[in-house]
Specification:
The protein is mostly helical. Helices cover 75% and strands 0% of the residues. The chain is built from seven helices and no strands. The longest helix has 35 residues. The protein is globular and about 50 Å long.
């Protein structure tokens, strides 16, 4: 069914735009996002993948392959460690799928699941960088100066973009009725 819907164009385009905006917003708003000692990571691609799971309306989007592809692009563009995002994006999609089984599809449930996803994503990302020596920040500083601002930024993204993305997916998953 995915092949026959407008979603086959809308979803990859939205994923590409969200990946582009993650980098562009981080660059343009660098003085705001990375003001010492705080740092915020824009995770619009993660938001797109999570909301796509909830808004696919019975059309099974191949989220894991798209998450892997988005991870490869993100790795090549920004992270410096090839394979980190390539593994984390599909793991977060799988975590979303697992958590969604136990909660309703309400706005509050979705924002809570996204909250857990961002915490898991940022924490695993931190641990990976810590293990290879890219960062030497202690865990308490990570929680206060990186995770908390990242959560705040991405939850604002969620609240602001929830209804426009839902409308876009509703349009893309409904048939043309003339």
């Amino acid at each position: 069914m995915y092949r026959l819907s407008r979603l086959k164009y809308v979803f990859p385009l939205g994923l590409f735009v969200s990946l582009f905006l993650d980098g562009a917003l981080s660059h343009v708003w660098a003085p705001l996002f990375f003001r010492y000692p705080y740092s915020m990571m824009s995770e619009l691609a993660l938001l797109w993948l999570v909301l796509a799971y909830f808004f696919e309306n019975g059309i099974d989007i191949p989220l894991i392959p798209f998450a892997i592809a988005a991870g490869v692009v993100a790795d090549m563009y920004s992270s410096g460690i090839l394979g980190l995002y390539m593994v984390l994006y599909p793991c977060i999609v799988a975590l979303t799928q697992l958590l969604a089984k136990y909660f309703s599809g309400s706005f509050l449930s979705m924002i809570m699941i996204f909250f857990v996803d961002v915490v898991a994503f940022a924490t695993i990302n931190y641990w990976a960088y810590y293990m290879v020596g890219v960062t030497n920040t202690n865990f308490g500083d990570f929680l206060a100066f990186s995770l908390a601002p990242t959560l705040a930024l991405n939850l604002v993204y969620f609240v602001v973009l929830y209804w426009p993305i839902q409308s876009l997916f509703n349009w893309a998953t409904t048939e043309n009725k003339v």
